[in-house]
């Protein structure tokens, strides 16, 4: 009688590698597109935090004003403005149309921008963003309910530009870092109060003082991109799981598995598909951080009193209106708790992401460990803690001050 081999040899690793190779061979274009988008998003966001451009600030200010106009009676003019500006951005990106238009106009219209920003050429993106800001500012000024908000935002942009490109360069050697610190501190002040604003000024200045500013902004960009993608994926899945018990039963064991696996495991397929760099770090972070967002979204919707839903149905509200007008607003504190956990878990992946070339603070922490450089590791670790407190308090303040309900 021949012996039976025990334990049997099961080539799971070979199957896994073969599956990865098949996916990469057949869907390589999709992975390349995802990698390019993630890389672009991280670079843009990190670059903005390290050295904000006037055009980027104008674009953000215009978006804030446009957001306040969405619920006003100016929706059609706003839609036309957004459509035209979007078309200008696309045409300039593809055919450099902005440069053609600028070159055909009188030079004196742009000399002030060249002198203020100390640039040899006029930035077409800045001109398009400024046009966007001017258009929505005029539209907001025409509407009584948004007039004050529009004046504050547009005036704030002007103050930021004058401060960052005229006043601060005469006072400090790194004006853009100080401008970013002031903007983030202003955000903390508005969202979480003066104590958080003061904390942001002092701690972010400390991060810059120990030479970790660029790394911290790289990390902040990576964390925000990963968190945003994770939230965009997690909330719809959580809503679907709350509405459908079958989906909930399928999702829960998958989430259990995602939360049980060590974080390093996610890096293996991520590196295989996206090579070394920031992209595999972001992808692994998304997978690692997503489960709390799904779970707490489902929990928040399921724990809403059924009588409130029935009342909405009795008044003839549609399922979509009940979801957006009753369930999501009432579940917002629980959902925001999930968003907070997503951000914290994303930040906890910083060091692991640094091991695969993601850069930022994680890379310095890893180097401090491998080189036995306590000073470098401690400085980077302190910066990670400061970012964690900053993001945690901001999301907590948004949850506390957010709307609790909305009218059906």
From TrEMBL:
GO terms for cellular component: ATP-binding cassette (ABC) transporter complex. Residues 216-395 form the ABC transmembrane type-1 domain. Coiled coil: none annotated. It is found in: Cell membrane; Membrane. Keywords: Cell membrane, Membrane, Transmembrane, Transmembrane helix, Transport. Pfam families: BPD_transp_1 (PF00528). It is a multi-pass membrane protein. The chain crosses the membrane at residues 48-69, 76-95, 115-139, 151-172, 178-208, 220-243, 263-289, 342-362, 374-391. GO terms for biological process: choline transport; glycine betaine transport. Its main location: membrane. It comes from the Bacteria. The keyword Cell membrane applies. GO terms for molecular function: amine transmembrane transporter activity; carnitine transmembrane transporter activity. PANTHER family: GLYCINE BETAINE/PROLINE BETAINE TRANSPORT SYSTEM PERMEASE PROTEIN PROW (PTHR47737), GLYCINE BETAINE_PROLINE BETAINE TRANSPORT SYSTEM PERMEASE PROTEIN PROW (PTHR47737:SF1). Belongs to the binding-protein-dependent transport system permease family. This is ABC transmembrane type-1 domain-containing protein. It comes from Nocardiopsis kunsanensis.
């Amino acid at each position: 009688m021949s012996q039976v081999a025990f334990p049997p040899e099961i080539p799971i690793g070979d199957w896994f590698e073969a599956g990865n190779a098949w996916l990469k061979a057949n869907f390589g274009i999709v992975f390349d597109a995802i990698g390019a988008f993630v890389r672009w998003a991280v670079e843009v966001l990190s670059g903005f935090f390290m050295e904000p451009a006037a055009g980027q600030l104008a674009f953000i200010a215009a978006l804030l004003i446009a957001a306040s106009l969405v619920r006003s009676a100016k929706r059609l003019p706003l839609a036309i403005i957004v459509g035209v500006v979007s078309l200008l951005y696309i045409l300039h990106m593809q055919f450099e149309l902005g440069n053609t238009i600028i070159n055909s106009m009188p030079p004196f219209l742009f000399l002030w921008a060249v002198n203020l920003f100390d640039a040899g050429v006029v930035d077409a993106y800045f001109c398009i963003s400024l046009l966007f800001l001017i258009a929505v500012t005029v539209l907001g000024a025409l509407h009584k309910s948004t007039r004050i908000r529009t004046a504050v935002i547009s005036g704030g942009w002007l103050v930021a530009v004058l401060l960052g490109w005229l006043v601060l360069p005469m006072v400090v050697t790194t004006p853009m870092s100080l401008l970013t610190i002031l903007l983030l501190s202003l955000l903390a002040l508005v969202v979480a109060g003066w104590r958080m604003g003061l904390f942001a000024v002092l701690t972010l200045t400390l991060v810059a003082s120990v030479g970790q500013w660029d790394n911290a902004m790289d990390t902040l960009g990576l964390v925000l991109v990963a968190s945003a993608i994770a939230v965009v994926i997690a909330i719809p899945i959580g809503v679907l799981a709350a509405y459908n018990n079958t989906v909930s039963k399928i999702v829960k064991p998958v989430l259990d598995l995602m939360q049980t696996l060590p974080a390093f495991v996610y890096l293996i397929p991520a590196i295989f598909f996206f090579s070394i760099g920031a992209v595999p770090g972001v992808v692994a972070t998304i997978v690692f951080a997503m489960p709390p967002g799904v779970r707490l979204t489902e929990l928040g919707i399921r724990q809403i009193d059924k009588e409130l839903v029935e009342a909405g149905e009795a008044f003839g509200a549609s399922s979509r209106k009940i979801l957006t007008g009753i369930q999501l607003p009432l579940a917002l504190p629980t959902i925001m708790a999930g968003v907070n956990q997503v951000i914290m878990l994303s930040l906890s992946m910083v060091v692991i992401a640094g091991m695969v070339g993601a850069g930022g603070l994680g890379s310095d922490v890893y180097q401090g460990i491998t080189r036995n450089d306590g000073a470098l590791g401690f400085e980077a670790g302190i910066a990670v803690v400061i970012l964690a407190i900053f993001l945690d308090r901001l999301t907590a303040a948004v949850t506390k001050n957010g709307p609790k309900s909305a009218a059906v």
